[in-house]
């Protein structure tokens, strides 16, 4: 058996947790995954995986071998990409990560335009509010909202992610319109629950050089923006959300902006990719397209 293919099957089996799950991701049968792993074990003369009817785990050798296999497979992929680097035509699959709301509403038009422009490219877009590890999880590029920590990744600044505060006319008629951020303490405020942390209880606003902080009551916390907007449209409370996402409801009058004299702080946004990764034509063109549409003014 081809040793690289066997290594790929072993790595996927270790990450997926079972031969069946690995088989689905690799497009082969569970029996074939088992044969690839068995071939490696026979070559090494030792077990790589401990398997029972309920679970599987890496042996001590398997854990060390897994890390080396990941490195070897990454280097093999980099070697294969050399042909693409020398070929100016973008082609192949590009694995991208983006936050859920930004990816669903702001990024998707760019993705479809990019695919129309480059018909030999495929995009595997993963939408998650979790901070993915580009190297460990095999992403070539990721969008990230919020401050960046220390990292070896290349970070290209994009236009800030702007937020607005709004509510339905029905809510404002029933509960009144807040005039200052402090008034929000007396209102029902809708909280966005992030994957990695609780919903923000402190909302911040800027007016001139003054920063206003207010502790809001969020009895409803949702980890999906459409559901949060549905609650706002139903007249349940005030929502603080992405301007691009809320713009159609604001333009139709279904939602009304409040505290227009106070601007919620914009959030930093960056496009990240591995500095050491070979710049294939598909990645280079995607980065250029993103910067052309979302770069800072």
UniProtKB/TrEMBL annotation:
Domain of life of the native organism: Bacteria
Gene behind this protein: yhjC
Name under which the protein is recorded: Putative HTH-type transcriptional regulator
Domain HTH lysR-type: start-end pairs: 1-59
Similarity comment: family membership: Belongs to the LysR transcriptional regulatory family.
PROSITE patterns attached to this UniProt entry: HTH_LYSR (PS50931)
Pfam families in the cross-refs: HTH_1 (PF00126), LysR_substrate (PF03466)
Gene3D superfamilies linked to this entry: 3.40.190.290, Winged helix-like DNA-binding domain superfamily/Winged helix DNA-binding domain (1.10.10.10)
